[in-house]
Structures are given as structure tokens and as C-alpha cells.
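User: Working on a comparison across species. This one is Glycosyl transferase family 1 domain-containing protein from Pseudoduganella buxea. Can you predict its structure so I can line it up against the others?
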Amino acid sequence: MLFQREGGLQVQVRETIAALNRLGQDDAHPLQAELVDPNRQRLDQFDLIHVFSAINGNYRVVEAATDMGVPVVLSPLLSPGWDRASGFRARVADRLAGRLTAWHVQTSYAQTKKALQLARLVIALGEAERDAITSGFLIEPAKIRVFPNGISRQFFTARPELFRHRTGIRGPFVLMAGTVSPYKNQLGLVQALEGLDLPIVLIGRCGRDDQGYLEAVLRSPQVRWLGELQHEDPLLASAFGAASVVALPSHGEVFPLAVLEALACGTPVVMTDENALDLRESDFALRKIAWHDGEAQRAAIRHFIDQPPQREAVRALVEQYTWQRVASQIANCYFDLAARLAAERGMAPQVPQALVALDIKEHAAVRQEEAQRGSA
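Assistant: Here's the predicted structure for Glycosyl transferase family 1 domain-containing protein from Pseudoduganella buxea:
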């Protein structure tokens, strides 16, 4: 179901595979990556399996690969909201559910924890996610590496003219890009900015179950919804480049690509404080505020509109976040893992010939949040 939706996870998988294969053409990193089709291919056709997202049943992929003797690298994409207290409550709930059902029911927390335990290496997107993995799921820090997401080049070179021409919006406006849903909190943003003569542009898919929510958001005359745009659509990058502020007041994020892409366009961001993104000395362009604090969101947005930061300085915050750099770090992990496994088996290190980036489940931006709320 992965590519039945479009969002940050899909971009991460596609860009990681493409960057790994570009890197694989170099003699220093001889490798090949592809998206596995579990209906047609066995996991033991590959030297290593990289699983993206630890929820929605992906623990079964980790189990199957482990049973076949194929090492697994896991990018779990866990909410930074997990801590010792929430992890303890989830473990209590899992034991209670098991006892009440003669161990026929297992919580999503237990499944996620099993995937983390079986993986030979875990890649977190930031220090906040690393802390969530160690504190909430009791995974040893030694098996965790921290590499951020990358940013596609079109966002560094985006021009606002296309968006201005297509929409007719000439003055300042606030942009929010992401799935339209109560969790993403578009309505909260609209309410926070009520009374300001400031257009709000929404870009993103709306599921059938959230059509009523979208209708409530669109009752505000200041809102304009452009629907879903493909990540490669020049209009998307142009919208980020034209916006005065990008807002993301959702209940929680892991490492949101929309924020990185906005900053790459030189656009300041006001976002939820429940996230794993950590950019040093970024307060001049990035404000983190509680999702339910509309007054603080309003003040931060007005500040950025009245005193916009220099776009080149904003871009500089994320100029090192390229997919090629991320792929190089990930590839080094693959080779290090292969060498370690060979040493454990008393064999000479073998260069992996086929590495696969894999995820067979739905977009995590909404589904992960629902599963984690239910498990807690």
C-alpha cells in the first residue's frame, strides 16, 4: 500500500533508493538498491533488507528476513513523543491485553519493539527519535545511528513566479502542506489566524473520512485549498518559495520534509514542538510551538511576516541536507554491518551486491500517529 498515498515517507524511500544507486556506480561503494516486491521475490535474494517504518505490520518483514538469515536495517520513523513513562504504560497495556485474551492479541507497541529488537541496525532521523527509541522501547543505544532526511535540489532553486502566476496571490500568505486531517490541525491554524487579512493556502490530500473536516476548514474565506501536488511538481516548490511563512501545527512530527523543503526555499517556519528536528541557531527562521497554542502561533507568524529573515540565511540552515550525503552515510552503515557479520561468522568480508530499500505499508504520517495513540 506504500505508493497508494503520497507524502514524506514515499519521498524518503524513492530518494534514498535513487541516491544509493547513483552512489553505487562509484567503485568505492559498489551496491545496487531496489524496492522489493514481496509477492514475487524472496527476501533472501538480497544481502540486506532496509525496512522503512516499524508499524503497520512491518515487524513481520523483519521477522521473515531474520529467520532467513538476512540482516535488517530499520528506519522506524517513531514519534518523538515516546518516553520512559509512555513506554512503561504501553508495556503494561500489552501485558494486560495478552492476559485478557490468552495471548492472542498483541499491541502495536509490542510489534514495533520486536522489529527494533530484531533489526541489526536502527537509523533514527534525529536525536529526539533516538531518545524515543531508547527510552520508550528500551533499545540499546549502540545499535542506533542518526542520519537526517535529505532535501531535493528543486527546493533550493525554487522561484515564486510560477505560483504567483497560477494562483493570482500577490501579497503575503501562509502555506501549509500535508495531509488534511484533524491530526495535522489545519482548522487550528485557521482559527489561530482568524481576523487577520492573511490568505492561508493548503496543499495536500484529503481522505474520504476527513471530507467533513475539510469542509469546516474551507468555511473560512481566507483559506484556499489546491489539493494534492506531486513532489516533483514545480508548482509545489514554487509555493514554498512564494510563501511568507510555512506552518505545520500538527499534533506531532518525526522529521518533516515539508519543514526542510520550506527552509531550503528560504521560507521561515512555525511548527509543532513535538518533533525530532534539531537545527542549531535556527530561532531566527524556525519557531516550535505547542500544537494547541493558537495565540503563540499567531504571534510567531506575524513576527515572520513583519520581520522576514534573509532567505539566503534561511537556506544556509539546511544546505548540507542532500540525499546524496544521506545515502553515503547509510551505505557506509551497510558495509560496516556486512563486515561485522562476516567477522562474527569467521569469514572474509563480502561486498554486498544487492541492497534493498523496502517498505510495504501505508504512509506513516497519519497511520503511525493513529497506531501510536492507540498503543499508548
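For your comparison, note: The longest strand covers residues 48-52.

User: Helpful, thanks.
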